[in-house]
Write a structure and sequence with these properties.
The chain is of the alpha+beta class. 41% of the residues lie in helices and 16% in strands. It contains 10 helices and 11 strands. Strands 8-9-11-10 form a 4-stranded mixed β-sheet. A 3-stranded antiparallel β-sheet has the order 1-3-2, covered by helices on one side. α5 packs across α8, α6 packs across α8 and α7 packs antiparallel against α8. The protein starts with a helix and ends with a helix.
């Protein structure tokens, strides 16, 4: 049994996170496979990411590398073939070029509240997403999350962040822009206002009526973006 498991592990890609389920489908064998995997981890032949989850480490000139972000959390993003969450927060800020800071904390957007967990070098926390999470929605939701957490983006100036977001929203298709307007309604008012200002800036003919009507026009939102970057701040009550 051990040799069979080792041979299977040899065929896995470096950094691929696996469980006993990758070796058997029969319930009777699962405990035996888990025991072998735990023994291999104890002797340093593989690494344990967390209970029941293992990987082959990648070596670099700087030492041993952990699995990539997706492999670290993939079971928290999908269950039984259904998408249950998506990466957001610091890792997405970095991926989108909004900050150069490498995150030590991973954030996952989910529909229902969950307690934080720790895996490898990461602390994983969860934020609530009010909208339905689908494969098609995720890219737009990640962008909207950047607006939602605009003031929490580290090591970057508000003007630089806003310029980058203006560029990213400009690359969206008309269908994605319409989707962003619909999905934004379930976000905080500051997100709606910033989206409206960005869409108006990118295209003066964009219909942002839905967003404008969703705001309380007695409230303002302090984002510290200059009028050189967003000249329509007064309309959207942004300071």
């Amino acid at each position: 049994m051990t040799d069979i498991i080792k041979n299977t592990i040899d065929r896995f890609a470096i950094g691929y996170v696996f469980t006993a389920e990758d070796f058997c489908t029969g319930v009777k064998n699962k405990n035996t496979v888990t025991k072998v995997l735990n023994n291999l981890a104890a002797t340093g032949q593989i690494r344990r990411l967390c209970k029941g989850r293992f990987y082959k480490p990648q070596m670099s000139k700087f030492g041993e590398l952990p699995p990539d972000t997706f492999q670290t959390v993939k079971d928290l993003l999908e269950k039984n073939g259904k998408i249950t969450g998506y990466l957001t927060g610091y890792s997405i800020f970095n991926k989108f070029g909004l900050t150069t800071q490498v995150p030590a904390t991973l954030q996952i957007a989910v529909r229902k509240e969950k307690k934080p967990v720790v895996r490898s070098n990461y602390r994983i926390s969860f934020v609530i997403q009010q909208n339905t999470i689908t494969k098609v929605n995720i890219p737009v939701l990640q962008l909207l999350d950047c607006l939602r957490f605009f003031k929490n983006i580290p090591d970057a100036m508000p003007d630089d962040i806003c310029r980058r977001l203006l560029s990213m929203f400009k690359q969206l298709s008309p269908e994605q822009i319409n989707k962003a307007k619909r999905l934004a309604i379930k976000y905080p008012p500051s997100t709606i206002a910033l989206l409206g200002a960005i869409l108006d800036t990118n295209n003066e003919n964009e219909d942002t009526t839905l967003l404008y009507k969703a705001l309380n026009h007695q409230t303002s939102y302090k984002l510290d973006v200059s009028t050189q970057v967003l000249s329509n701040q007064k309309k959207w009550h942004i300071q």
